[in-house]
Amino acid sequence: MARGNRSDQGAEPTDWVTRAADDAIRHAGIGEGEDRLITCASGASPSGPIHLGNLREFLTPHLVAEEIRRRGLRVRHLHSWDDFDRFRKVPAGVPASWAEHIGRPLSAVPDPWECHESWAEHFKAPLRAALAEMGVEMEEVSQTERYRAGAYTEQVLHAIRHRDTIEEVLAKHRTKKAEPVAENDQEAAALADSVAEADEPAGSGSLARFPYKPYCRECGRDTVDVTAYDDETTDLAYTCASCGFSGVTNVATQHEGKLVWKVDWPMRWSVEGVDFEPGGLDHSTPGSSYTVGKELVKRVFDFRAPSYVAYAFVGFAGMQKMSSSAGGVPTAADALKVLEAPILRWLYARRQPKQAFNIDFGAEVVRLYDEWDSLGRKAADPAKRDAQVLAFERASATAAAGTLPTPPVVVPFRLLSSVADVTAGSAELISGIVDRAGYAHDSVEDLQPRLGRAMTWTAEFVPAEDRTTVREEPDAERLANLSEDEQRWLAQLLDRLPAELDVDDTTALVYGVPKLARGLALDDAPTDEVKADQKAFFRLLYELLVGAERGPRLPTLFLALGSDRIRRLLTPSA
Ligand SMILES: [Zn+2]
Question: What is the pLDDT of residues 447-486, one digit of tens each?
Fold first, then answer.
């Protein structure tokens, strides 16, 4: 095609979500007129706070399911809570006595904070709330409930009958396993966790690596050794290393255990008919869960592994001041205190999953909002629809929730946070100032949900040294030592400063005073001399008003402080 060819204008833009949806539909084998339910799956262990890196696990299948739904096909986002996984270690901040629960299912460990019925529920709840705010709807499955109800019994027995094949596959991958490389500490911790949850042996001798492990009937822990298994009766005998109990569980009729992780995952692909599932990069290295699962699901469960997307790490910055609920690692709820829900979705929608990125809660937040607002303006023009706009659309709305909340009157986050910074005032006060700054609106509600976030960000995320401190009292010493130019500027400013400030007149006045001092009119173009004077004048104003060399834009600062206060701080005492 010729350079500059515009023939593709109007064509549907595509991105990674489009391609992942294509793959999922292909996996489901849906042809013309077929109506099979397509399943996009996610899974997470509610063992601790679910941080923003884990959020990729949820948003990746969500976005893909939304794309499939958009095409008019039947689809569900199925989320498995791995709450039947063992409690592995007592984190900092939890009483040491919780060590007693190590080895029990997360759903059977009490909530140390006593607000939920279990450890697992304590960590599910905040994520569920954040996802609801982000318009993510999913069909949730508790592995505890499924296993306890015997929903997988047929597959468990099938896996046990094929345990030699399973061991053959696992052994092959075990020897091939490459040492995963972590890029930083957080990632190293995640990798250590994923290695720890690998196929731990459940028995010894001929029952080494038995694929199924019961929780001890006496103490509830998984510290059991399988000592005998009868293929005829499906009786499984075990002894518990923790409490010494020896017992027998019948795998067909008593639902007391689970398949080891690397067998459990592919088993569920086949039971649930999973067509698409993402996983962390550490799950897709040689010898890891997906690689092994892909072979197991084919050889043991007669199913083709779902189309798969590996996602990279999400890092964080700018959180010096932040009191995260996850001990320094922010969660979705933390991010939603500062970012509008569509913007948080956009961070994940706009990048390929394999691309790592950082979320910066510092000054970068202001630029992020600017970028988002500018993309919103672009998206309003159908002629400019491209992959960037597509990501904007994916972030902005869902089939079920419709358009997610955004402010009816869009005011730059930069302005809202500046005014919040200078006034440290109420939403009503800020709303009044913003109105006079050129963003007319009827009520505080017209600025939400952004205004509240700007206030929170300013108060909780901006480091003290970057905050603006308005002088309580005039700087008497500086005012007593003004140069002649400075005296003239201040006199001309105060002479013309009206009692009620509006943004246009204030801007003209602040920039115009150095022109007046050089014999020009307020609206004359500045000469080079005037430009130099403006710089010096602005520095003087910052010094006298906020005791710093710089600060928020001067018109914003003037509007936020009000005429009387400005006058008081700029007037030399008689
Ligand atoms: Zn026991």
Answer: 999 999 999 999 998 988 889 999 999 999 999 999 999 9
Helix (H) or strand (E) holding 402: strand 402-403
Prediction pTM value: 0.89
How far does residue 205's CA lie from ligand 1's centre (Å)? Answer: 21
Cα 225 to ligand 1 centre (Å): 10
Q: What is the pLDDT of residue 424?
A: 83
Q: How far is CA 188 from CA 14, 291, 315, in A?
A: 34, 20, 13
Can you read off the two tokens belonging to residue 314?
Answer: 């999400």
Q: How far is the CA of 242 from the centre of ligand 1 (A)?
A: 5
- The residue written with tokens 């593709």 in the block is 8
DSSP string, 74-91: -EEEEEEE-TTSBP----
CA distance 508 to 497: 11
State the distance from the centre of ligand 1 to the C-alpha of 560, rounded, in angstroms: 66
| 171 CA from centroid of ligand 1 (Å) | 29
Question: Cα(127)–Cα(55) distance, rounded to whole angstroms?
Answer: 9
pLDDT value of residue 189: 47
Give the pair of three-digit tokens for residue 339.
């970012």
Whole-angstrom Cα distance, residue 251 to residue 269?
A: 21
pLDDT at 463: 87
How far apart are the CA of 256 and the centre of ligand 1, in A? Answer: 13
**What spacing in Å lies between the alpha carbon of 146 and ligand 1's midpoint?**
22
Cα of 222 vs centre of ligand 1, distance in Å, is: 8
CA of 104 relative to ligand 1 center, distance in Å: 10
* Pick from 557, 421, 438: nearest CA to 504: 438
Q: What is the DSSP string of 128-164?
A: HHHHHHTT---EEEEHHHHHHTTTTHHHHHHHHHTHH
Nearest to 268, CA basis, from 299, 241, 305: 305
CA 378 vs CA 63, 405, 568: distances in Å: 21, 19, 44
Block residue for tokens 């009827």: 442
**Ligand 1 midpoint to CA 246 (Å):** 8
* Gap from CA of 83 to ligand 1 centroid (Å): 19
Q: Which residues pair with residue 42 across a beta bridge?
A: 79
CA of 170 to the centre of ligand 1 (A): 27
Burial of 22 (0-12, 13-18, 19+ CB in 10 A): middle
Query: Mean pLDDT in the chain?
Result: 90
Say whether 359 sits in a helix, a strand or coil. Answer: strand
222 near 213, Cβ under 8 Å?
A: yes
Give the contacts of 466 (CB within 8 A, at least 6 positions apart).
363
- 236 three-class SS: strand
* Cα(236) to centroid(ligand 1), Å: 15
Residue 324 has pLDDT above 60, yes or no: no
- How close is the Cα of 556 to the center of ligand 1, in Å? 67
**How far is ligand 1, taken at its centre, from the CA of residue 240, in Å?**
5
Ligand 1 centroid – CA 229 distance (Å): 19
